[in-house]
């Protein structure tokens, strides 16, 4: 540690430049990671936060909720294999609304639920739906940025029905649109798939074990039982969007490893004669290796602290319309990955130090 600190103090500019490049790389990775997490939530938070383990869909619907159509009979069949409260229907319909008396349009997704079921959202403002009132809704609070507030009336342009916002929730979006919850009385007025004397919905949410899910899928025809992760992959654009961002993040980690490897290897080559002298006077390869490891870890930790501060600072000035989410778990995960990548990048230098021949290095210096 003494040798590592003395060397860093002696060559300040060199290590500052390495640290600056590390700060930029980590900052970029954290920002893209926060953007990927934010886009994921903006695209599918209603499914991610759903209090359910599995979803029942119509067979051959390609795991897409909006392509699935189920009936009351499907619901009764499923409930024969579950306990009370473990299976509840869910209607999903994407549409466009306007504030009553205003021409401004907003894309939203209606979620029809049983308000006494596990799918009922947490109310952050206002009140929960009345299970009888057909024209009351609870909306995601992102609609407040578009000028909507409690008591406002919204019109569904597809059906012409008018609803009153009685409450707001948060963290509820589907396919980059805010979710608006209504009960099945309201659903019956807007559902495109409604048939006489029979309720039609899109999926059945289940809160059951994996074995029970397999049993239901095996015994009931014309249905698929999928996990929430599979349902996320079925949301249009979700897999492609997240795949592209994850590839960018992976390449940034690879670039960071190569940059560190190149910098420390060049610096190791430049110090071959000094390392040779140290070996000649009794310094072991393990001591020299610890010196390099300490320098790598020290620079990485300082760069991480600065980059994390910069990222959180920038996140406070980003507009609300930009989906950016940086959780503590994400920051910790990225930090450990960068420490691992830094150590991998230093392996080439450690190998070179272990192969230094003291006589040869001193001879080169002479």
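Sequence proposed for the structure above (366 residues):
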């Amino acid at each position: 540690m003494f040798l590592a600190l003395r060397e860093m103090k002696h060559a300040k500019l060199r290590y500052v430049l390495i640290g600056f490049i590390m700060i930029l790389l980590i900052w970029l990775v954290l920002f893209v990671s926060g953007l990927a997490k934010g886009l994921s939530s903006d695209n599918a938070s209603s499914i991610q936060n759903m209090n359910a383990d599995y979803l029942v869909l119509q067979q051959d619907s390609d795991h897409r909720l909006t392509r699935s159509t189920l009936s009351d009979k499907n619901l009764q069949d499923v409930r024969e294999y579950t306990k009370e409260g473990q299976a509840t229907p869910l209607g999903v319909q994407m549409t466009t609304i306007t504030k009553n008396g205003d021409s401004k349009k907003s894309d939203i997704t209606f979620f029809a639920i049983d308000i006494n079921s596990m799918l009922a959202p947490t109310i952050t403002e206002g009140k929960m739906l009345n299970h009888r009132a057909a024209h009351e809704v609870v909306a995601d609070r992102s609609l407040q940025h578009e000028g909507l507030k409690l008591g406002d009336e919204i019109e569904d342009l597809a059906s012409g029905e008018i609803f009153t916002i009685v409450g707001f929730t948060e963290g509820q979006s589907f396919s980059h649109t805010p979710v608006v919850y209504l009960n099945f009385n309201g659903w019956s007025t807007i559902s495109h798939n409604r048939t006489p004397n029979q309720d039609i919905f899109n999926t059945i949410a289940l809160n059951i074990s994996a074995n029970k899910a397999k049993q239901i899928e095996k015994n009931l025809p014309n249905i698929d039982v999928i996990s929430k992760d599979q349902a996320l992959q079925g949301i249009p654009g979700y897999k492609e969007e997240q795949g592209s961002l994850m590839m960018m993040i992976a390449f940034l980690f690879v670039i960071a490893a190569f940059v560190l490897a190149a910098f420390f290897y060049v610096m190791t080559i430049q110090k071959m004669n000094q390392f040779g002298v140290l070996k000649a006077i009794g310094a072991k390869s393990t001591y020299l290796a610890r010196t390099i490891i300490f320098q790598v870890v020290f620079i990485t930790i300082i760069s991480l602290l600065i980059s994390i501060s910069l990222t959180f600072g920038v996140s406070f000035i980003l507009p609300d319309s930009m989906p950016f989410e940086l959780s503590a778990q994400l920051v910790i995960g990225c930090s450990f990955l960068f420490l691992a990548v830094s150590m991998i990048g230093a392996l080439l230098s450690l190998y070179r130090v272990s192969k230094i021949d003291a006589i040869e290095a001193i001879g080169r210096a002479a």
